[in-house]
Amino acid sequence: MGYLIAQFRPLSFLHHEDSAQHRTMEVLVSILACLVLFGSYVAIRQLIALRRELHARKAEQKLALQMAQHDVLIGLPNRRKFQDVLVQLTDTIAPEKYRAVMMLDMDGFKTINDVYGHGFGDALLTGFSERLRETVGEEGVVARFGGDEFAIITPEIDEIGDAANLANRILQRIEDVFVLDSRQVTVGSGIGIAVFPDDGYSPAELLRRADIALYRAKTTGRSTYCFFELDMDATILHTTLLEQRLRNAIENRLIKVYYQPILDLGKQEIVGFEALARWSDQDFGQVSPAQFVPIAEDCGLIGKLTEQLLGEACTVAGTWPRNIGLNFNISPLQLRDVSFPLKIISVLSETGLQPERLTLEITETSLMQNADTALVILQQLSDAGVRIALDDFGTGHSSLTYLRDFPIDKVKIDKSFTMHMADSKECEAIVESILVLSQGLGVEAVAEGIEQQDVLQKLSDSGCPYGQGFLFGAAKPPEKIAELFQIIDQSEPERSRYSALL
After folding, report:
1. Maximum distance among all alpha carbons in the chain?
2. Is there a contact between 473 and 467 (Cβ–Cβ < 8 Å)?
3. CA-to-CA distance for 390 and 367, rounded, in angstroms?
4. DSSP tag of 229
5. Are strands 99-107 and 256-264 parallel, antiparallel or unpaired?
6. How much is the pTM?
7. Interval 155-174 mean pLDDT
8. What would the pLDDT profile of 133-147 be if each residue is shown by its tens digit?
9. Are 418 and 430 in contact (CB under 8 A)?
10. Helices marked H in 221-370 — which ranges?
């Protein structure tokens, strides 16, 4: 019995050992299950977080794409979105239908922005865009490319004349007075139009041609529209080639200064010369300043050209008798440059020409564009001793205001009045009125465009003090002016002082 008991005890011990192992296994299984459940929980949480992050990223990407395709200020489509939409609309256009692409901008926006501030300018842009959207309608597209530049895709139209009608409605709506912050402003615009499919198929080509047409519209006049025509491409090509040649001409100093005499009509003596730019290109021939000066202004070369030519002219004028003055025309753009007076004074210092011998000629248009800045610039020049002449006098709208408010020393009577004095009583009366006005204000008057002896006689009878024109000779190179002074010095005392010019 004792043996049996002794033999049974190990079996009981084994049973207890198995139970312990079983419990251990259960614990391990439980722990493992918990770990699995916890891992699943963590994985699910991570999956949920990942899905949320993906949704957030998609939303951010969608917003970024929206912002990348739309103007931030106004919310209109930008150039990128406009081109995408243009492809879609032209791909789905009905047979024998058209869509027109229009390019337009705001006349005078920069001036308004400078005068009233950027907040006012932003409000004006917003109001401008709203008028465009209202006029174009929901079936068309209005986009802002930047600044005051806008583009339009018209609704489908039956004939090209419908695009002209829409352009007219847009221009009329734009010209209505804007009332913003208790201020009233009026703006204009030009519109360039290219028609799909007649003027091109690709968005880039349609936009390019509409932009070319806009350039033509803006040179034609305020608030007008212009359709693209094939000859415009030739004009743009000509302008582009001319710009390239102009850059080379300025870099290599190929543009020269010629000098046209200005006379004291009473004493019959030369009192000065007007410096005039002359450029002869090997392929284009003689290029008029009326052609190359606007190109220089558009491509940012006018400052360099002016300093170059003024330096040459002042150097040449330094070789003349000390009582002979120099007149020099400046661009309207330079009356926006607050550093311009310092540049003029620097040129005078380098060349040694006395400031009182230099007269800068400006136009009324240049004063209209930025009157406040122009006044500061002209006053600084006047304080330095430089004289100021108002060119083309009588052709603007605010001449008397300028004579009162700006430091003007001379007025140059426009040749459109002078040349017709002999056959037009109206022109003669205008010239005489300007002479009386200038005398009363203590401002010198110079009559331009004197080409006939009877015109000279009428000017002399009216008491015009100074004049210039082809009657006294065309503009000449500096070596011819040196020869002219030699002839005058050697002439007999009783000989007419300007007969050497004839």
Report:
1. 173
2. no
3. 10
4. -
5. unpaired
6. 0.65
7. 95
8. 999 999 999 999 988
9. no
10. 230-251, 289-298, 302-317, 340-351, 364-369
Orientation of helix 302-317 relative to helix 230-251, angle to 10°: 50
Amino acid identity for residue 151 in this structure: A
User: pLDDT grade, residue 51 (50/70/90)?
Assistant: confident
Centre a 10 Å sphere on the Cβ of residue 235 and count the other Cβ atoms it contains. Answer: 13
Q: Taking the CA of residue 92 as centre, how many other CA atoms within 13 Å lie in the half-sphere pointing to its CB?
A: 7
Buried b (16+ CB within 10 A) or exposed e, 252-269: eeebebbbbbbbebeeee
CA 7 to chain centre: 114
Q: What is the pLDDT of residues 437-484, one digit of tens each?
A: 999 999 999 999 999 999 999 999 999 999 999 999 899 999 999 988
Q: Is 4 left (phi over 0), alpha (psi -120 to 50) or beta?
A: alpha
Of the pLDDT bands very low, low, confident and very high (cuts 50, 70, 90), residue 495 is: very low
Residue by residue, DSSP assigns 1-18 as -HHHHHHHHHHHHHHHHH
For residue 323, give both structure tokens: 């009582």
Residue with tokens 């024998």: 96
Residue 250 amino acid letter: I
- Residue 8 is predicted with a pLDDT of 45
Alpha carbon 249 to chain centroid, angstroms: 23
Q: Which two tokens stand for residue 96?
A: 């024998």
Residue with tokens 């400006």: 362
Q: What is the DSSP letter of 501?
A: G
With beta carbons less than 8 A apart as the criterion, state whether 287 and 255 touch. no
CA 34 – CA 40 distance, rounded (Å)? 10
**How confident is the model at residue 45, as a pLDDT?**
78
Amino acid at 423: D
Strand ranges inside 72-176, DSSP E: 99-107, 141-146, 149-153
pLDDT of 182:
83
Q: What is the mean pLDDT of residues 31-35?
A: 77
- 494: which 2 tokens? 């009783």
Strand order in the sheet with 225-227: 141-146, 149-153, 99-107, 188-196, 225-227
Residue with tokens 């050497």: 500
Question: How is residue 339 written in tokens?
Answer: 């550093």
Residue 366 has which token pair?
Answer: 């240049």
Residue with tokens 């003669």: 428
